[in-house]
Design brief:
It is found in: Endomembrane system. The chain is mostly helical. The protein has a two-stranded antiparallel sheet. Helix content is 72%, strand content 1%. Helix 2 (26-44) runs parallel beside helix 4, helix 11 crosses helix 12 (219-235) and helix 23 packs parallel to helix 25 (441-450). The longest helix has 20 residues, at 49-68.
């Protein structure tokens, strides 16, 4: 732990003082390092919470005097703000510094504004009354010709911004969707996504621009637009059926490894992008045969390429299985997905086994007979030591019960019932056994004799 602290303290001065003139950084750097470094070292050396509270209170009193002094420069204010962030990070109130964070974002140079914006984003929430004081600064920075200032303003807008002040910046952010720099367009899309979450009615008129972002030449901008589309399609999938072809084409490019390698994770092409696209396709293809037919091929390819060699590929495969069972069914795809689920259930890893059991619930909802091929594997899961696995297994067994396997399954349920000590499990299980006895009356007498 001490090595990590030392490395952090060594790096911090360079991060926050990187744009200082060549002639005079030595003294401020030493001051910054000694004050923040001394605070961090002092806290890590303490042995009790009481000692920590005492030390932090002394530090906050010192900072309060410094930020309130008329002789405090913006450079000194920046250093104080970093220490205030650290104190708040530990859970102590530094609200006296909030207004000074806003002033630093308004008045400082690029590096000072950066620290000021960072402090504001960490200190305040979107309904905080002081945030209104930053609106004019954000508007000014959005109109700046400096890319760094524009980026800082877009970042703060996408994190915290008063709902009632959205109209003041909305036209400026719309213009940034046409900016020549990809990072600006990407941040503009994320800002509009934030607006859609908190005030959807105010961005309804720019859906056409969202469509342009989906077709943007930069992959990052396109990926950012998927957040908005996933949200809108959840609310009204029928209005976006015409975009199914576009989503399928994008997924084909991703699965085929056509994206830059920067988007790969452990050699898996853009896994989070794949997951979002699969969720979108699942929503678009639900109960719609014509739309589902457009995505059968790419889903087949996704199942084939998602080799089980890393956790992220398990996530893709699980989402792909979910999508296959959400859209209009195709028998060949359903069978392939069911075989993939077997690899989950047979995994020795608890998390993957649980995912497999959850995936089987999708299978049962679509075609219970497909789950019967895993019947013995599911029954074996009842002997698993993890109680959550056992609960999920019991639920699955109840759902796949038929006249042929009812005796075996209920016997397993009764065995588990005798072992369980949780009242909720006992009540739930007894109810299921009673329902099965009523559903299969010839079996009912067998249950009584068994008991």
């Amino acid at each position: 732990m001490s090595d990590i602290v030392e490395k952090t303290l060594t790096a911090l001065p360079g991060l926050f003082l990187q744009n200082q003139p060549a002639g005079g950084p030595a003294a401020p750097k030493a001051t910054f390092s000694s004050r923040l470094g001394g605070l961090v070292r002092g806290i890590t050396a303490l042995t009790s919470k009481h000692e920590e509270e005492k030390l932090i209170q002394q530090e906050l009193n010192s900072l309060k005097a410094t930020v309130s002094a008329p002789t405090t420069t913006l450079k000194m204010m920046k250093e104080c703000m970093v220490r205030l962030i650290y104190c708040e990070m530990l859970g102590y109130d530094a609200s006296f510094g909030y207004i000074h964070a806003i002033k630093l974002a308004q008045q400082g140079n690029l590096l000072e504004k950066r620290v000021g914006y960072l402090a504001v984003s960490l200190f305040l929430h979107e309904n905080h009354e002081l945030l209104l004081l930053l609106v004019n600064t954000v508007v000014k920075d959005l109109q700046s010709t400096n890319l760094v200032e524009i980026c800082m303003a877009l970042t703060i807008v996408s994190q915290i911004f008063p709902r009632e002040m959205i109209p003041a910046v909305l036209p400026l952010i719309e213009d940034k969707l046409q900016h020549s720099k990809e990072i600006i367009r990407r941040k503009a899309v994320l800002a509009l996504y934030k607006f859609y979450l908190i005030a959807p009615n105010q961005v309804q008129h720019i859906h056409i621009k969202f469509r342009k972002a989906l077709c943007d030449r930069d992959v990052g901008v396109m990926a950012a637009s998927l957040h908005i589309y996933l949200r809108m399609i959840k609310e009204n999938s029928s209005g976006y059926k015409d975009l199914t072809g576009s989503f399928v084409t994008i997924l084909k490019q991703v699965v085929g490894g056509k994206l830059p390698v920067d988007f790969n994770y452990h050699s898996v092409p853009a896994p989070w992008l794949q997951i979002q696209l699969l969720r979108i396709l699942g929503l678009l293809g639900k109960d719609d045969q014509r739309t589902s037919e457009l995505m059968y091929d790419v889903l087949d390819e996704s199942l084939r390429r998602a080799e089980l060699n890393h956790n992220v590929t398990y996530a893709i495969l699980f989402e792909c299985v979910h999508t296959v069972y959400s859209i209009y069914p195709k028998s060949e795809l359903l069978e392939k997905a069911a075989k993939c689920i077997g690899k989950f259930v047979l995994s020795p890893k608890i998390n993957l086994k649980y995912l497999g059991l959850k995936a089987l619930t999708y299978v049962i909802q679509q075609d219970p007979t497909l789950a019967l091929q895993h019947q013995m594997t599911i029954i074996e899961c009842l002997d698993h030591p993890d109680p959550i696995i056992k609960r999920e297994t019991l639920e699955l067994l109840y759902r796949i019960t038929n006249a042929q396997n009812v005796t075996v399954i209920v016997q397993k349920m009764l065995e588990y019932l005798h072992q369980s000590k949780e009242e909720y499990i006992i009540v739930n299980l007894v109810g299921k056994i009673a329902e099965l006895a009523e559903k299969y009356p010839l079996f009912g007498s067998g249950v009584i004799k068994y008991r």
